Amino acid sequence: MDVGERLQAIRKLKGLSQRELAKRAGVTNSTISMIEKNSVSPSISSLRKVLGGIPMSMVEFFSEELQQENPTQIVYKAHELIDISDGAVTMKLVGKAHPSRAIAFLNEIYPPGADTGEEMLTHDGEETGILLEGKLELVVGLETFILEAGDSYYFESTKPHRFRNPYDEPARLISAATPANF
Amino acid sequence: MDVGERLQAIRKLKGLSQRELAKRAGVTNSTISMIEKNSVSPSISSLRKVLGGIPMSMVEFFSEELQQENPTQIVYKAHELIDISDGAVTMKLVGKAHPSRAIAFLNEIYPPGADTGEEMLTHDGEETGILLEGKLELVVGLETFILEAGDSYYFESTKPHRFRNPYDEPARLISAATPANF
DNA sequence: CAACAGCGTTCAGTATTTACAACACTTCGA
DNA sequence: TCGAAGTGTTGTAAATACTGAACGCTGTTG
Question: Which SUPFAM superfamilies match (chains A, B) (predicted)?
């Protein structure tokens, strides 16, 4: 990815001149000029300052890097799902062949007694899902929910969370999380 | 966001020493040390080199900046899902109350004859799903697939695609797409 | 045709980052 | 207990990025 080219594209899209952007960002116009011409590789701190004048986050700026490559398998039969089970919980991942997966899409089964563990899970991203069969207990932060067939959820994965099946029937869940940490 | 702290966290997570990472990245160990101590703000090019030794993209590195704000509804009963049906296809979205949804998680029903339309769909992102009941035809690019209960799929949404139920039973699908374009 | 205000580029000097080579500290095995 | 090999840190010199003040150019206004 060409940093200078990208910065220039963004700046022009916003209808800003180098001097205008420089003033908003608190750097000099020559800095902008040299970055755009790729005659320097800016420091993180100065690129931050520059983007602050737009404004735009680092993530957005670099998101163009996500240029996917070429074809892979599209359809997976039930037995082709990759098994990433953890303990008693059965988890099957859709899209194993995918190069850089953005979504972790899982078919999960919690047999009676299954539990993601006493230490709560915490990670980046967001997750969502729907319960197809059985009942399941979901703890998010300080709240505890009882999910029944047909119920769904959506929360930030940064909140501590835990799934548990204290009932006597297996629970079946389809879930999706992003980014995919597998 | 603290660049040094984040780099150190990632490095340790990967079980690498400063020297080990430096060697893989093609920089010196002192560079890593100083970046982690925030005694310098590395240039884009050198941070790229460092992340190349992990390996990790700039986007992933800065993705931690995506710190979401505060609580909303977490669990949704079946009747609380928001209905975004299009034509004959019933689509219900999980997480309507969520501020900035990263995932569009849908419970879809394609009655016999239902179709997303003759002009193929094309948009950014990736999508995935699993068929729970019935049969469904999926066209992606030049390929046509027949999905049966239990089958799943994963593809780039940039490829032209179409879902269709030419059979005489309804098909039920759970799908996830990112980014969420709703 | 000036005079002016805007544009992006360039140059010299200063500030910052980086490599290289040391350092002190810990762990492991002879 | 004494190297040997690992860890992260630090000082100095070289490389690179940044500022501030020019420059040449274009379009506008009197």
Answer: lambda repressor-like DNA-binding domains, RmlC-like cupins
